[in-house]
Design a protein that fits this description.
552 residues, alpha/beta, Nucleotidyltransferase, domain 5, seven-stranded mixed sheet, six-stranded mixed sheet, globular, disordered N terminus, FGGY_Carb_Kinase
Length: 552
């Protein structure tokens, strides 16, 4: 999972305060009356600073990328820290450029990151194996065994699936395990010394009990009966809910963020969360009958439930909001990365033709061309599968563009097919959710691909046959949402998270809502029928084509 792979994801385009409040902003920064949100996404580490009213004061970012090493998708933790420090330095410079002051302390800090995956440490705090991210699909045996054992869907990417696969494979490091966590939990641990997780992030490690807001005790007992050599409860982080104090920034943690020694210790930290939770916060969709779609390197939908699902579906994960309320999640490993690759190709063509365009302009031209495409994309199909996709039954991915001889290959149809392709696997999962008759009043969307007004939002509404709303904070995404959670923790408010967001953060927010167009709905339905049938081609490509540098 991730913060979005974005069309020139420059959140600074929506940052700032009015000229009349520049002095107030500078005073707030100098006094440390601010909240800092850090999010480690799939392609970018973002840091966002907000004031008391949740307005963005400054931002920083740093690009990074996963690596496919020994057939494992991973990130170096050294790269995580160098990226965090670079993004923090960028934020400090941004604050100085805007207000003439450099922050040296904060009221609150929060850390968010890609959910799931597997980070394992021994008693000395040493990492035992390389970080195994959510993108890996090598845990099929473990996930199937746990799903049967628990009577709940345990996805391939969940931390417990990675741990259990290591047990099944008799990996030597299992004997040395002292602690397992997520990326957000790891960074928080290093900043505070506390091994905790927000309940939303924890719900992607192991199933959560909706009543107790912590791991399901009965399922822990079942697992420990199956694998008596492991004290699973002792290996997992403590679970906290939004609003709780999750520790303070230590001197050692401050030095990790700011090696210049300027940053003071002492800021309150919020429970670390996953990017799904910060996406819910960023779109004000933490109450029942609300939902959101986050489109980035991965794409996923979150729908807050009024009642339990009637049966187990491999397409649907049961997770929680940052407050611990149950959520049905449709998670797809592949989102906008292939779309971004095609945009890069068209940008290179424009430059070679002597008419260079910046990234924003390339996306704008291509997205608006898609509006002129046929409702079913003219018979073109686009598969965005760079990695495996469990919902589509794929252990690995092979990006494809497929068409029949009688299809209409035009730029508008090609781009509409690419945008539809981002939503294709998501729509397969959402069709399952519709069969559960889950109540949903409106979907909110965020991510960089929604920055071009009226295009991706319109096509998503057609794909889901539901109204889709986008807020002006949409492109700021999870880093802003995490900053809001940090402010909530520091406020020591007795309000629920839903009330805090509704009454304090989003009271004056502007949402632009697009209703589904009947022609788009019918066209996407035709596209999806062909897309489903064409998955046989994708599976054949996985079987026939071996990635460069690997062997079958």
């Amino acid at each position: 999972m991730s913060t979005p792979t974005e069309p020139a994801a420059d959140v600074q385009s929506t940052v700032g305060v009015g000229p009349g409040t520049l002095s107030q902003a500078a005073a707030a920064i100098t006094a440390g009356r601010t909240s800092l949100g850090i999010e480690l996404g799939s392609t970018r580490i973002k840091i966002c600073l907000i004031g008391d009213d949740a307005a963005v004061l400054a931002v920083g970012s740093h690009e990074w990328e996963n690596a496919f090493v020994d057939r494992v998708w991973t990130y170096s933790l050294d790269d995580a820290w160098s990226g965090i420090r670079a993004a923090y330095a960028d934020l400090v410079s941004d604050a100085e450029a805007r207000y003439g002051v450099r922050p040296d302390g904060f009221g609150a800090v929060g850390v968010s990151a890609m959910m799931h995956g597997y980070l394992a440490f021994d008693h000395a705090g040493e990492q035992l194996v390389p970080f195994r991210t959510w993108r890996n699909t090598t845990t099929g045996v473990a996930a199937a065994e746990l799903t049967e054992l628990f009577g709940l869907n345990i996805p391939l990417r969940w931390s417990i699936a990675h741990l259990h696969q290591a047990v099944i494979d008799d990996e030597p490091h299992v004997a040395d395990l002292d602690f397992v966590t997520t990326l957000a939990g790891y960074v928080h641990w290093r900043l505070t010394g506390r091994k905790v997780l927000g309940v939303g992030d924890a719900s992607g490690m192991f199933p959560i009990d909706a009543a107790t807001k912590t791991y399901e005790a009965a399922l822990l007992e079942k697992y420990e009966a199956r694998v008596p050599a492991l004290d699973l409860a002792a290996l997992l982080p403590e679970v906290l809910v939004a609003g709780q104090n999750a520790g303070v920034l230590t001197a050692e943690g401050a030095a990790l963020l700011d090696p210049t020694g300027t940053l003071r210790a002492g800021a309150v930290l919020a429970p670390p969360e996953g990017d799904a939770g910060t996406g819910m916060v960023a779109t004000n969709s933490v109450a029942p009958r609300t939902g959101n779609v986050s489109a980035g390197t991965s794409i996923f939908a979150m729908v807050v439930l009024e009642r339990p699902l009637t049966s187990v579906h491999h397409e649907l994960d049961l997770v929680t909001t940052p407050a611990g309320d149950p959520v049905a999640m449709v998670h797809c490993n592949n989102g906008a990365s292939e779309l971004a690759a095609w945009a890069g190709l068209f940008g290179s063509f424009a430059a070679a033709a002597g008419s260079p365009l910046d990234s924003d302009a390339v996306f704008d031209v291509l997205f608006r061309a898609a509006l002129d495409g046929e409702a079913d994309a003219g018979g073109l199909l686009a598969y965005n599968h760079l990695a495996g996709e469990p919902i589509a039954g794929l252990d690995e991915g092979r990006p494809l563009v497929v068409r029949t001889p009688d299809s209409r290959l035009t730029l508008p149809n090609f781009m509409r097919a690419q945008l539809y392709g981002v939503f294709g696997t998501l729509a397969l999962g959402m069709r399952v959710l519709e069969g559960e008759r889950v109540g949903l009043d409106q979907m909110f969307a965020h991510g960089g691909m929604f920055r071009t007004a009226g295009v991706a939002q319109r096509f998503l509404a057609g794909a889901l046959d539901a109204p889709v709303a986008v807020a002006h904070t949409a492109s700021e995404g999870g880093a802003w949402g995490m900053a809001v959670l940090a402010a909530f923790a520091a406020s020591e408010s007795s309000e629920t998270l839903d009330a805090y967001l509704r009454d304090r953060v989003f009271a004056g927010a502007v949402f632009e809502t697009v209703a589904p167009d009947a022609t788009d709905v019918a066209g996407f339905a035709t596209y999806l029928d062909d897309y489903r049938a064409g998955l046989a081609v994708e599976r054949a490509a996985v079987a026939a084509l071996t990635p460069t540098g690997t062997t079958k």
